[in-house]
Amino acid sequence: MDIYLTNLTTNDRLRFPMLPTEISVKLANQFGSYTILDIGEVKIPSGTSLDTISWNGIFPGEKRKDAPYVLEWQDPKAIYHWIDNLKAQHGKPVKARLLITETPINCDVYLSNFTGTPTGGYGDINYSLALIQAKDISISTETAQPEPLNNKAEAAERTAPKQAETYTVTSGDSLWKIAQQVYGKGSDYPRLFEANKGVIGSNPNLIYPGQVLTIP
Q1: Which one is the CATH code of 164-215: 3.10.350.10, 3.40.50.150, 3.90.226.10, 3.40.140.80?
Q2: DSSP assigned state of 209
Q3: pTM of the prediction?
């Protein structure tokens, strides 16, 4: 498992040198904490999108650069300044992309909170990091046009219920993989799960070839 953070303005990517023991995922209506070091699988609660992702960790000093738990050592001061550069510039937030491998977390984020404290005799920096998911909002300035009153066929077509699309599960499929295929984003798999609980059951990881899923 690795944690990567990419500055989407400069395209520079940071690989966190040490994994935190726990990552907290705050949702609109739910909270979840996931142990990272000895985890076998991460499950994001269904029904909503990620809101805030946070954790506490250590940027190891040079005296620990060869320790087996250090994935890719970098100067902790350089890492501190790299993350600090994600703070809003001239009032405009800097967008980044967070990827935590072997989990569904792969999304654009903004820096919400970051603090670092030099500590100990190893040259470490203890830090606290919180990221908020970036959600772009588009506002239309077009004036709505009145609907024609004399086109009954067009009105009937607009009001006709849309026929539900379906997907038949094949060998090797997962909800993440199907969501990636139909929505373009694997992290949208809770939409599939919520719409198909009657078919899938209570465990979103247990789907079988031949099951017919409704695509909401």
Answers
A1: 3.10.350.10
A2: T
A3: 0.54
